[in-house]
Amino acid sequence: MKNLLLGMILLLTAVALNAQPEHMQGRMQERIEAYKIAFFTEKLQLTPEESKNFWPVYNQFENEREALKNRYNLEGRRIELMSDREVEDFVMKHIEMEEQMVKLRRDYIQRFKEVLPIRKVAMLQRIDNEFKRALLEEIRQRRENRQGGGQRRPGGN
User: How far apart are CA 132 and CA 50, in angstroms?
Assistant: First the structure.
């Protein structure tokens, strides 16, 4: 379910970015980053010192996580069109990627513990998921508002 949600968020973000002129894409990405920083800072109640130390580690983690996903590049494959051997390879690569993700998370838990109290480290996964849901909802609301779906209808409450 988490992978599906993450995939939907990434797809919607990509669609939203691609629908924008190039100069707007950079601004949108900056706004998403600013929203993320504010969201995490508030939810984790980061002090200025924690924030200063946390973000470089978190950004490195995000970059490595993205590179790992890109290395395996399992998205967009249609299993129904694959041979049995290709499906087996796909499943094994997916498991291998998940194992690598667990290893990456385990390594970064140790790094996060160097810059944050353990309680805040323990909250990171939940806050990350909450952020993705909030971002998805924000994108949905903005799309509705652009399409006039956010306007009240006459006679409605």
Answer: 22
The structure's pTM equals 0.70
Q: What is the dihedral of CA 9, 11, 16, 17, to 10 degrees?
A: 110
Task: Supply φ then ψ for residue 150, to 5 degrees.
Answer: -90, 0
- The domain tally of the chain equals 1
In a domain, 109, yes or no: yes
Domain hosting residue 102, numbered range: 53-141
pLDDT tens digit sequence for 34-49: 999 999 999 999 999 9
In whole angstroms, what is the distance from residue 41 CA to residue 39 CA? Answer: 6
Convert the pLDDT of each residue in 55-68 to its tens digit. Answer: 999 999 999 999 99
- Note whether residue 9 is domain-resident: no
Distance between CA 28 and CA 90 in Å, rounded?
Answer: 34
Residue 69 counted as domain residue:
yes
